[in-house]
Design brief:
The protein has 9 helices and no strands. With 237 residues, the protein is mainly α. The protein is elongated.
Length: 237
């Protein structure tokens, strides 16, 4: 058990930094999959308003299923693998993404949509080049919550073997009575969550330069063009 701060037990069959890589893979791939699935579902909910309530109800019920119960259901089909951990995380992300995307898209002013239609934008182009860019702040806010939640929930994978990445360190730390392993697990997971959230904040600033910033104040007497108009103008180019 000796060998330095980042030395970990051989039963984990990985180095500490290898576990960090596994943790990120198991956390971020489900979030990406959830976002890809949520985009068309949310668009259907925007177009068919009656569909939003039942979809939200279904995603909420799925979110309420304990991860251990999810594992028991999936393990007969996907075994004790990373897939068994990632599928529940992707499903859980839907309860965050669907409302975020729907609320963001619905916040687009009708005048902006009418202008896009008058400029010859079809439904798909209007959705991709006008509605989604304007809804980006709401979507990224949901992405931040889903990402941080997924990073923390990956550790539950230790319940089905060595699929919990950094969570396995917590398990081994308790078995071997090694406080060092517990701290490596807890602090490592927290640092990953903080860094991922910070990167998404930077992404939001890059993608939405028209959004107000606490460090950026408009000069007195300078008129600012409305954000939807800027997005529509860029989309038409």
């Amino acid at each position: 058990m000796s060998g330095g701060l980042f030395h970990i037990p051989s039963d984990l069959q990985n180095s500490y930094w290898g576990l960090v890589g596994v943790h990120l893979r198991e956390a971020l791939l489900p979030v990406l999959a959830g976002l890809v699935v949520a985009l068309p579902i949310a668009q259907l909910c925007v177009r068919l308003r009656w569909l939003y309530v039942p979809v939200l109800g279904i995603t909420t019920v799925l979110y309420a299923i304990p991860s251990l119960a999810f594992f028991v259901i999936l393990i007969d089909y996907t075994g004790q693998s990373e897939t068994t951990v990632m599928i529940p995380l992707a499903v859980y992300s839907l309860v965050i993404f669907v409302p975020a995307i729907v609320d963001g898209v619905r916040s687009v002013p009708q005048e902006t949509l009418d202008a896009a239609t008058a400029m010859g934008f079809g439904p798909v182009r209007r959705y991709l080049q006008v509605q989604l860019p304007i809804a980006a702040p709401a979507i990224i806010a949901g992405l931040r919550v889903a990402t941080v939640s997924s990073i923390s929930l990956v550790s539950v994978g230790m319940l089905i073997g060595n699929q919990g990445a950094l969570g396995n360190l917590l398990h081994d730390g308790m078995i071997y009575h090694q406080t060092r392993l517990v701290w490596l697990s807890v602090l490592g997971t927290a640092v990953l969550a903080i860094l991922a959230d910070a990167l998404l904040v930077v992404l939001r600033i890059v993608l939405t330069p028209w959004m107000p910033s606490g460090s950026r104040r408009a000069r007195a007497g300078t008129a600012q063009e409305p954000a939807p108009a800027l997005v529509l103008e860029d989309a038409a180019r």
